[in-house]
Design brief:
Helices cover 27% and strands 37% of the residues. The protein is α+β, with helices and mostly antiparallel strands. It has a single domain, classed as Aminopeptidase. Helix 1 crosses helix 2. The longest helix has 15 residues. This is GNAT family N-acetyltransferase. InterPro entries: Acyl_CoA_acyltransferase, GNAT_dom. Pfam families: Acetyltransf_1 (PF00583). One of its GO terms (molecular function) is acyltransferase activity, transferring groups other than amino-acyl groups.
């Protein structure tokens, strides 16, 4: 567990998720999905039950290429992020990065602090050589954050997402460790 100071002086606690966090995570993901169109699912569309999320967390703990981090501000879950390490032999050297933050905490530097932790974990995981992610192309704030950490744009997939009838392009990015 780590504590970090945010731009506004508040203290954020970062720790790894445990299966006991599953209910809080499911609630958080369904709520945060209603705050932005930049996630791959909308409000109420997160499909895992609490039991399935607990199992997912336990499986992730067994995978050295994976980690799920929870960030709290005054006991409120502010951010969920993870590296999802692959389990197929041909992809063991890769992981996918995901990050989400409650809208009321945007602009406080949480993304930067979380990216530092995730990349630190990836670099100390010997088998990982490549981290990749996808971001909605119009989400320039996220894309600039990823570029700040050395991520390179690999390309754009047009109309990969559709939100309320509007098609959105998605930018694929990667970081060689």
């Amino acid at each position: 567990m780590e504590t970090r100071e945010l731009k506004n002086g508040q203290i954020m606690t970062i720790r790894e998720a445990t299966k006991e966090d599953a209910g809080n995570i499911v609630t958080y993901l369904n709520e945060v999905a209603g705050e932005t169109d930049y996630l791959s699912f909308g409000q109420g569309e997160f499909s895992f039950s609490v039991e399935e999320e607990a199992e997912y967390i336990e499986e992730g703990v067994k995978n050295p290429g994976s980690i799920m981090l929870l960030s709290f501000i005054e006991d409120e879950l502010a951010s969920v992020s993870q590296l999802i390490g692959h389990t197929k032999k041909r992809e063991l050297h890769t992981c996918e990065l995901t990050i989400s933050t409650r809208k009321k905490f945007w602009g406080l530097g949480i993304g930067t602090l979380i990216m530092e932790e995730l990349i630190k974990h990836a670099k100390k995981t010997e088998r990982l050589k490549l981290v990749y992610l996808e971001a909605v192309s119009e989400n320039k704030r996220a894309i600039n954050l990823y570029k700040k950490f050395g991520f390179i744009e690999a390309g754009e997939i047009p109309a990969l997402m559709q939100v309320e009838g509007l098609y959105m392009d998605v930018t694929m990015m990667y970081l060689v460790l």
